[in-house]
Protein: Lipid A hydroxylase LpxO
Amino acid sequence: MLKWVILAVFVGSTLYVHFRGRVRLKFFRQLTDHSMFMAPVNVFMYACSRVPTKPYVSTEFFDDLKPLTASWQEIRAEALALRDAQQIKAASSYNDVGFNSFFRRGWKRFYLKWYDDAHPSARELCPKTTEILNTIPSVKAAMFAELPPGSELRKHRDPYAGSIRYHLGLVTPGDDRCYIEVDGERYSWRDGEAVMFDETYIHRAENGTDRDRIILFCDVERPMRWRWAGALNRFIARHLVAAGASPNQEGDKTGGLNRVFASFYAIRLKAKALREWNKPLYYVLKFAIFGGILAWIFWP
Structure:
C-alpha cells in the first residue's frame, strides 16, 4: 500500500510541476527531464515558502543582498579583470554536470562559491567579491556568468526549488535584445540592477546584440515559513546540491556528482548517437527502461 501512496505523490507532484506556470516543456520531455525526480521535494518547498511562488520575486524580500548592489562597481571591476584574463570560461572537461549543456551555446562561468566556502581561485582572483559574499549566509552559490554576443540558453528549468535565483547586472548591453524570459515574461539586464526569479519555472536567455553580458549570478536560500522546513532545505542542499561543485582551476573542490559525471556522459554520448541514427528506436528504448524500472518497483 505504501508504495502506491509514494507513486501517487510522485505522479501528482510531477503533474503539478508540469502544469505550473504558463510555459511548459513538451509532456514527454517533462517525463524524462531531470527536474521530474525532484518534483515531490519541490512541491514541499513551494508549500512552505515564505516568499511568493511567482516567476519573479521582489528583491525587497531580501534586505541582506543590498551590499551586493551597493558594491556592484567594485564587483564589476573584478569580473572585467577575470574576463580579460580569460578566466570566465567553459568547463575544461566533463566536470560541471549542472551547466554542461550551456557551454555548447556560448555561456561561460567563473565560480565564486558553491554551497560551501569560496573556491581558492576565487579568493585569490576576486578578494573583494568573496569578502562581500562571505557576509551574506543566505547566498549558497555564486558565480560570474558571461553570455557573449549571439549566445543563448534554451528553455529549461532548474531541478531544485530550495533557492531563488539572483542576477546583478555588471556589464550589460542595456538593450532589450539581451534578455532572460521566465515563464514567458522578459527582463532585460541593466548595469547595477538586480532581479530575482524562481528558476524552477521554465526560462531561457538570449543575447541578440553585438555586446557582451556579464552578471553576478547567485542562488539564494528560499526563506521558509517554519524553522524546521528551513533546516530540511539546508540539509538537502548540503548533502545533495553541494555535490555539484565544479572547479575553476586545479586545487578547487570538485563535488561527488562531478567526479563521476564523465563516466555517465560517455553513456549519454552513445545514447545521443543512437538518437541521431534512429530516433523512434531511441525513444522506445528510453521509455522501456523507465517503464521497466517502475514495473520492477511497483508490480507485485
